[in-house]
Design brief:
With about 170 residues, the protein is of the alpha/beta class. The chain has a single domain, classed as 3-Layer(aba) Sandwich (Collagenase (Catalytic Domain)). Strands 1-2-4-3 form a 4-stranded mixed sheet. Helix 1 packs across helix 5, helix 3 crosses helix 4 and helix 4 crosses helix 5. The longest helix has 20 residues. The two termini are about 15 Å apart.
Length: about 170
């Protein structure tokens, strides 16, 4: 599949003035925890590829895998939705300046939900799980999915990030 690698429209954060505190180098720190069938190193590597493709220059990102029970509790506590969901994202601090996007956030993913949805949507488990990571990254960059137009745009961006991250296994 030939994928356009120009995602210059991905960063949605409002641009701020350049800060002398920002470094010129790229610093992408991704931590992975919780039970998942995929290795943490693989999840970290694919996530870093997504961040780079999205134009993120600096990141502190935690990806946490939760059981159905824990995801339901988190979804209920954080969003008031008393059901299991696929992904919940918390933006701790994100910005965009002349040197690129910076994100600091947490992405909580439910692998069991990914496995169910992979069957439902005729996808591989791996691709469905990484779709949730891409979805979380896009939320951290300022994208929303409240309307069908916004959901369609996010889905398109997710596909681009997935193509890049999973093609370099």
């Amino acid at each position: 599949m030939d994928v356009k690698r120009n995602l210059s429209v991905i960063p949605r954060l409002k641009a701020e003035g350049s800060s002398s505190k920002n470094k010129l180098s790229t610093s992408l720190v991704v931590s992975v925890s919780g039970p998942c069938a995929l290795s943490p190193a693989f999840v970290r590597r694919a996530s870093v590829l997504m961040l780079k493709e999205a134009g993120v220059k600096h990141a502190e990102l935690s990806i946490v895998f939760l059981s159905d029970k824990k995801m339901r509790a988190l979804n209920n506590k954080a969003l008031g939705h008393d059901h299991v969901t696929d992904v919940v994202t918390f933006n701790l601090l994100s910005s965009l300046d002349a040197k690129g996007a910076y994100i600091d956030g947490e992405i909580y993913v439910c692998p069991a939900e990914a496995r169910r949805n992979a069957v439902r949507f005729d996808e591989t488990f791996e691709r469905e799980l990484f779709r949730y990571v891409a979805h979380g990254i896009l939320h951290l960059l300022g994208y929303d999915d409240a309307t069908s137009t916004e959901r369609d745009l996010m889905h398109t961006k997710e596909d681009l990030l997935l193509a890049v991250s999973l093609s370099e296994k």
